[in-house]
Amino acid sequence: xxxxxxxxxxxxxxxxxxxxxxxxxxxxxxxxxxxxxxxxxxxxxxxxxxxxxxxxxxxxxxxxxxxxxxxxxxxxxxxxxxxxxxxxxxxxxxxxxxxxxxxxxxxxxxxxxxxxxxxxxxxxxxxxxxxxxxxxxxxxxxxxxxxxxxxxxxxxxxxxxxxxxxxx
Length: 168
Hints:
This protein is mainly α. Helices cover 80% and strands 0% of the residues. Helix 2 (77-101) crosses helix 4. It is elongated. It starts with a helix and ends with a helix.
C-alpha cells in the first residue's frame, strides 16, 4: 500500500505544480519565438529597404532624393521611366511591410517596428515626384494599403502647404 500512496502523491504533485509550470514555460517560449519572428521579419524588410536605397544611390541621375528649392534639370524619357520603375519597387516594399507588419491593434513592439515604416512613407510622400506618381503606382495594390498611404500623402501635402503659407 505504501508504494501506491507514493505514486498517488507524485501524480498529484505533477498535476498541481509541474503541469501548470510546463504550460507557463510553453507560453513564455511561444511569446519569445513570436517576438523573434517579428524581429526577423522586420530585419528582412529593413534589408530590402537598404537595398532599395543603394539602388537610389546607383541612379543619382534620376534626382530621386531631390529636395525642394534645389536646382533641377529636366529628365529624359528613359530617366523618367527608370524613376517610375524605382518608385514602383518602393511602393512594393511599402505594401509588403504594410501587409506583414501593420495591424489595427498592434502590440507595443509591433507598433515600434511599424512606426519606422510610416516614417519612411512620410519621407517619400514629401517628394513631389513620388506623390505625383502615386495614383498610378497604387493601381492593383492592396485596398487597405492604398487608403493608408493616400492618407499619409494627403497629410504630408497639407502640412507642406501649411508650411509654405506660413513662410509666405
